From TrEMBL:
UniProt cross-references to Gene3D superfamilies, sorted A to Z: Vaccinia Virus protein VP39
Protein name as catalogued: Methyltransferase domain protein
Signal peptide range in chain numbering: none
SUPFAM superfamilies the record matches: S-adenosyl-L-methionine-dependent methyltransferases
Length: 256
């Protein structure tokens, strides 16, 4: 699963026994060499699907980590791109790899990239975002497993609050693996292990793969005031019943 540049088993164990924030601070230097980083195939598919919904001026990468989704926004947004994450370590790595240096990882002061939008890296909690309604597009990749189901209303309300009227909140959502698939049992086993870990150890490390399902997500987005559309990502094919293997969820803040 990991390249030679990735974390060792011991490093993963130390991370898993930490809080979410501190765990990702520890993992940050090697995060991009793990399977936890969103694959480029998904990033590229979402970018292609969003390109027809623009133009966008200001973009936000919610729970940006080391910045995999920031590249999507830099290609789509004309004026500014902002990444927000709770982990200072992930932000520092993202800034360094983007060529902005390590200083100011907690700063909201953007730095221009020649020929591209202004880029900012901001430390903040997705459940209490430090922004007003200034974004046309918000995206998130691979972060929703860190939020418990009862946190979704607050999370989606925050996403709604930072979008301008007509702004869009978009993210990929793969279909759940069928019960006969090894991925189904792998996810079930992982979630079970995390529940046992959190029952026995503090601080908790929230990371569950299975609760974030389309029906629940759609209902909570609509309760937050969004209008929800689904876009099939054809690059990933169809399930035996003809439904997409992966969708892009687009939640729009109404103009009124």
């Amino acid at each position: 699963m990991f390249t030679p540049q990735g974390p060792s088993l011991r490093e993963l164990a130390v991370q898993a026994l930490s809080s979410v924030e501190h765990g990702y601070d520890l993992l940050a230097p090697k995060f991009d060499h793990t399977p936890f980083r969103t694959p480029d195939t998904i990033l590229d598919a979402v970018e292609r699907a969003l390109a027809g919904l623009g133009p966008f001026d200001a973009g936000l990468d919610l729970c940006c980590g080391t910045g995999a989704g920031m590249g999507v926004l830099r290609d789509l947004c004309r004026e500014s791109v902002t990444g927000v994450d709770i982990s200072a370590g992930m932000l520092a790595v993202g800034r360094e790899r983007a060529g902005a240096g390590k200083e100011g990882a907690d700063s909201a002061d953007g730095e221009p990239i020649p020929g591209g939008p202004r880029v900012s890296w901001v430390r903040g909690d997705a459940r209490a975002l430090p922004f007003g309604p200034v974004f046309d597009l918000a995206v998130s990749f691979g972060a929703f497993g860190h939020f418990l189901p009862d946190e979704l209303p607050r999370l989606f309300a925050e996403a709604h609050s930072v979008l301008r009227p007509g702004g869009r909140f978009a993210f990929p959502l793969p279909a759940p693996a069928p019960p006969g698939s090894p991925w189904y049992w792998a996810a079930l086993g992982f979630d079970t292990a995390m529940r046992v870990r959190n029952a026995l150890w503090r601080p908790p490390f929230v990371m569950y793969y299975r609760p974030f399902r389309l029906g629940v997500v759609r209902d909570e987005l609509e309760r937050a005031g969004f209008e929800v559309e689904l876009f099939a990502l054809p690059e990933f094919g169809q399930r035996p019943d003809g439904s997409p293997r992966c969708r892009m969820v687009v939640a729009t803040r109404p103009n009124t």
